[in-house]
Amino acid sequence: xxxxxxxxxxRDIPPGESAAWRWLLETHRRVAEAHGYRPIETPIIExxxxxxxxxxxxxxxxxxxxxxFVDRGGRSVTLRPEGTxxxxxxxxxxxxxxxxxxxxxxxxxxxxxxxxxQAGVQRxxxxxxxxxxxxxxxxxxxxxxxxxxxLFEALELRGVHLQVNSLGDPDDxxxxxxxxxxxxxxxxxxxxxxxxxxxxxxxxxxxxxxxDQRFVADAPLIWDYLSGAxxxxxxxxxxxxxxxxxxxxxxxxxxxxxxxxxxxxFEFWHDTLQGSQNALGGxxxxxxxxxxxxxxATPGIGYALGLERILIAARASGVAPDxxxxxxxxxxxxxxxAAPDATDWARKLRAAGLRVVTDATDRRLDRKLRSAxxxxxxxxxxxxxxxxxxxGAVVRDMRERSQQSVVADQVVATVLHLI
Length: 419
Fold this sequence. Notes:
By secondary structure, the chain is of the alpha+beta class. It has two domains: 15-169 and 227-317, 2-Layer Sandwich (BirA Bifunctional Protein, domain 2), CATH 3.30.930; 329-418, Rossmann fold. Helix content is 36%, strand content 21%. The chain has 14 helices and 16 strands. The strands form three sheets. An eight-stranded mixed β-sheet has the order 1-5-6-11-10-9-7-8, with helices on both faces. It has a five-stranded mixed β-sheet with strand order 13-12-14-15-16, sandwiched between helices. Helix 1 (18-34) packs antiparallel against helix 5 and helix 5 (138-154) runs parallel beside helix 8. The longest helix has 17 residues, at 18-34. It is elongated. 38% of the residues are buried.
């Protein structure tokens, strides 16, 4: 019988990759909280209707990509495919918007979509995002975009390009959808199967299809269907980005795949990611989402970033951190009798704030030192018969390959000095 492997579209994150993941997650937390965003966590599993209503039944996410099943109580539940609907539910059901407005929150965690696995696309993937809920202002749109932009600056990730567009208000989108349908209907027989379906369910998604890109150049532009108020709003967002010294490219073909977006839409693209998977993430305004979820009308804007894709770009750009040493100190007992003393010294060094591994096996000292070197510690503390009797230790500098005998009350200080 073959060993059990990870499911297709999922992957393990071994210890050697943990430093890069921690760097990315911690940097996002720090940048978000510097702008006043507080952490929030929502369940990985939600009622299916949350996404059917919030994301939209005509979207690829709901129609083809969700992991949905019936629980033991007979209710349809879904592994979350995106974060915004769940965060809006959590904020409004807890009346957080009655405490302070807007509600600024950030999150990070696993999400699930049944997509074809490829570079930067997994069925279980990780996103980090922010949401700004309960106020509507071009300045807040700029703020949300700026948080993402400052994140990439903090990561020292070059080659990021901001793409922005306006999707207008619901009336604008209704007019634009009608124009797209009128343009594409005569072409229906030439469209792929997905686009023929989208023509009646979600025509904006036709602009994203890679197989039917030859028709996009002549398709109507949404800018021609925006009201004066929508144009003014988008102009104010652009002016705010200029004040923040964030260069943005207006991309009239940029759409977002979820039904709840209105007005400002944006994506962060990177040079190292090619084709249809060139976006590190994106977001936009979703002023109609709360009502769709049967809450009072509540505006909001946010983004979600794909951490796997960011790490691909960071490694290609040479800015992701290398693997960290497994520990700071290895405490080695020369023989079995010295093992209890080695364990005691390990406890003292941990109490001083160090990461310590103990090797109390019965192997030869030279083999223990070779094994210790693989953990890349700065220092090895060696306890033999003489050290056990005297109460001290041999402190070995693993980089300089020098060592010294140290009396008991100086061991911790000596180790800290070397590190």
